[in-house]
Design goal:
3 domains, Helix Hairpins, binds magnesium ion, about 450 residues, alpha+beta, Heat Shock Protein 90, binds adenosine-5'-triphosphate, 5-stranded antiparallel beta sheet, Beta-Lactamase
C-alpha cells in the first residue's frame, strides 16, 4: 500500500510539474503568435512556431474558431478539422488553457507504429484586441516522462519488497528468540509444578530473559534446598525421638517380664525411664521452638531488659552443675547493660551457650563469661578451655541436629539443637553470633546484640 501510494504521489508530482511547464510555454507562445495569426502573416507565423516547436521538442498547431487547422508544424493536418477536447474547451469556455494526455493514434496521427505513444496536449487561447481568434495546440511526447515514472515505480517497489522481506525475517527471528526462552521457562515451571524440584531452566539468552531465568533458577534452588532440609529435619527429628522411646521400651520390658526384680534395680530402671522422658520432653520443646521460629509465629515480646541482671540470674541456675563437675565459673558482667528484647529468648541464648561450655569442658575446667557494651552493641562472650571444635565442624555447629562427636554428645544428652536455637534467637534480636575454637584448647562464643538507643 505504501509503495502504491508513494508511486502515485511521485507520478502526480511529475505530471503536475510537466503540466505547469507546458501550459506556461504554450500560453506565452499563443500570446506572441496571436498578432501574426490576426494579421494573416503566414510566413512569419510558420517560422516562429517551427522554431518554438523544435525548442519544446513537440508539434504546434494553430486552430481557428471553426476548429480547422490553420497551421501544423508537421504540415500533416493543414486545413483539416480537429476535435481535440482541449481545443474545444479553450474555444468554447472561458478557460485560458486546457491540458490532457492522450494516445497519439486517432487524435493527431493515424500511424499504427505510434500506437504505444502518448502525447501531452496543451491548448491555449489566442486573442487579438480582446477577441478570441483561435487556439494554439502543443503536442509533446510523454514517453520520457512515462519512462521516468516507470523507473521510479520499479525502484520504489524493489525497495519496499526488500524492506518488507527484511521486516518479516526480523519479526520471525525476534519471535523465535523471545518465545524460545519463554517456552523453556514454562516447561520448567510445569515440571516443578509436577513435583520435580530439580528442574532448572537452561537459557542462553541475554538481557532481561537471562535475568528472569537466573532469578527463577535461584528461586528453584532455594525451594529445593528448603524441601531437602525440611525432609531431613523430619527424619532427624523422628530419629532423635525414636532413641529415647526405644530405650524406654527395653527398660519397660525388663520390668514387665521380670516381676521378681530386686526393688533397687527396679527403682534404678524407673529413674532411667524418668530421665528418658525428660530428654524426650526437652527435644520436643526444642523442636516446637524451632518450628515456631520457622513459621514466623515466634513473637518477640520485646521490652527493655537489663541483660546484666538476666545473665547473672541464668548463670545462677547453672552453678550447681558446674560445682558438681569441679568446673570454675568466672563471670565478669558490666552493670546495667540494657537492650530491647524478649527476656525468655535471651535467657535461652545465655543458658544454651553456658550449658554447652559446661558440657564440653572436662572436670576442673574453666569457663569465662563476660558481658560488656561496645559501641552500639552489647557483647556477650562464653569461653571455655574444653575439648574445642575442629575447624571443619565450626561452620556446621549452628545447623540443626549437628553434633561434632555423636557418641560423646549422646553421652552428655545433646541433640544438636541448642546452637541452632541460639542463632535463630540472636538473629531475631538483630544480632550476630561467631565462634572461635581450637581443638583441645577450648572454644569461645561471641554474641553481639544491638543496644537500645540512648540506654546505658
Ligand atoms: N563449647 C563447646 N565446646 C566444644 N564443642 C561444642 C561447644 N558448643 C557446642 N559444641 C559442639 O557443637 C555441637 C552442637 O551444639 P548444640 O548446642 O547445638 O547441640 P548439643 O549441645 O549437642 O545438643 P543440645 O544443645 O540440643 O542439647 C555439639 O554437639 C558439640 O559437638
Ligand atoms: Mg547444646
Amino acid at each position: 500500500m505504501m509503495a502504491a501510494l508513494l508511486t502515485g504521489l511521485v507520478s502526480n508530482t511529475l505530471y503536475a510539474q510537466r503540466t505547469r511547464q507546458d501550459s506556461l510555454s504554450t500560453e506565452k507562445l499563443a500570446a506572441s503568435a496571436a498578432p501574426f495569426f490576426a494579421a494573416a502573416q503566414t510566413e512569419a507565423l510558420h517560422e516562429a512556431l517551427t522554431t518554438a516547436a523544435s525548442e519544446l521538442g513537440g508539434r504546434l498547431l494553430v486552430i481557428d474558431l471553426d476548429g480547422k487547422v490553420q497551421m501544423d508544424t508537421f504540415s500533416l493536418l493543414d486545413g483539416k478539422r480537429l476535435a481535440v477536447p482541449e481545443v474545444v474547451e479553450v474555444l468554447t469556455t472561458d478557460a485560458s488553457h486546457a491540458y490532457g494526455i492522450h494516445p497519439v493514434r486517432g487524435v493527431l496521427s493515424d500511424n499504427a507504429s505510434d500506437a504505444e505513444d502518448y502525447a501531452a496536449l496543451c491548448a491555449a487561447r489566442m486573442t487579438s484586441s480582446g477577441q478570441t481568434i483561435g487556439a494554439l495546440l502543443l503536442s509533446a511526447p510523454v514517453t520520457e516522462l512515462h519512462n521516468a515514472i516507470v523507473t521510479v515505480e520499479r525502484q520504489l517497489l524493489t525497495v519496499f519488497v526488500a524492506v518488507a522481506a527484511a521486516a518479516l525475517i526480523a519479526a520471525l527471528v525476534f519471535a523465535v528468540t523471545i518465545t524460545r526462552p519463554v517456552k523453556a521457562l514454562t516447561s520448567t515451571i510445569r515440571r516443578m509444578g509436577r513435583g520435580d524440584l530439580s528442574a532448572r531452566v537452561k537459557v542462553r539468552a541475554s538481557g532481561e530473559m537471562k535475568e528472569l531465568a537466573d532469578s527463577y533458577n535461584a528461586m528453584a534452588e532455594k525451594i529445593e534446598n528448603f524441601d531437602r532440609s525440611r525432609s531431613q529435619f523430619v527424619s532427624n527429628a523422628s530419629h532423635e525421638l525414636k532413641t529415647p522411646l526405644a530405650t524406654m521400651k527395653i527398660l519397660l520390658e525388663n520390668l514387665l517380664y521380670d516381676p521378681d526384680m530386686p526393688s533397687e534395680l527396679r527403682t534404678e530402671f524407673m529413674q532411667d525411664m524418668n530421665h528418658e522422658i525428660d530428654r524426650l520432653t526437652g527435644i520436643i520443646t526444642d523442636l516446637l521452638t524451632l518450628t515456631q521460629i520457622d513459621s514466623h509465629d515466634a513473637e518477640l515480646h520485646a521490652q527493655e531488659v537489663d541483660l546484666s541482671a538476666l545473665t547473672e540470674e541464668t548463670l545462677h541456675t547453672l552453678r550447681p552443675a558446674a560445682d558438681k563437675h569441679g568446673q570454675r565459673l568466672f563471670v565478669q558482667l558490666a552493670p546495667d547493660v540494657r537492650i530491647v528484647g524478649d527476656p525468655s529468648k535471651l535467657t535461652q541464648i545465655i543458658y544454651n551457650l553456658a550449658d554447652n561450655a559446661l558440657k564440653y569442658t572436662p572436670e576442673g575446667g574453666e569457663i569465662h563469661i563476660t558481658l560488656s557494651a561496645q559501641g552500639a552493641d552489647a557483647v556477650l562472650t562464653v569461653s571455655d578451655n574444653g575439648i574445642g571444635i575442629p575447624e571443619e565442624d565450626q561452620a556446621h555447629i549452628f545447623d540443626r541436629f549437628y553434633r561434632v562427636d555423636k557418641a560423646r554428645s549422646r553421652a552428655t544428652g545433646g541433640t544438636g539443637l541448642g546452637l541452632s536455637i541460639v542463632r535463630q534467637m540472636v538473629q531475631l534480636h538483630g544480632g550476630a553470633i561467631t565462634v572461635d575454637s581450637v581443638p583441645e584448647k577450648g572454644s569461645s562464643f561471641t554474641v553481639t546484640l544491638p543496644l537500645q538507643k540512648g540506654v546505658h
